[in-house]
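User: quick one, fold this
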Amino acid sequence: MTMSEEEKKELVQFVLDKKEEGKIVVMTFEGLMSAPLEDFIKQPADGLLYDLNRDTATTLSFVDDPKWVNDFAVALVIRKLKAENERLSGLKTVLKRIDAKAISIVAKLSYRTSAFQDALTIHQLCYKALGGES
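Assistant:
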């Protein structure tokens, strides 16, 4: 498919406009498709790479084009970033649980500290009442 210079400019402008809208544009068998980037990146790595024509099978079918090496590298980076994101999401969940437990412990300690302070105050008042000095 050969495009005129005007068609190329229009395509570039379309892609840039969609970017400003927070959308990604990809070429599919049916033609151009745009989707919200936030939704698009929620897919598993395999889905992302397939939709971007950067899955291993597709990338390796273009070995006559030297750009395949970078396309393959991009796929590896996407897979690693997705895995790291999942790992960090798991840690975030664990940290939320730890935080909730810590808040519970602090609340119990605060109650105990308050009770201890109350007991100490009563002790001091009783000591004074009995003629002692605090």
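User: anything notable?
Assistant: Residues 35 and 113 are 55 Å apart (CA to CA).
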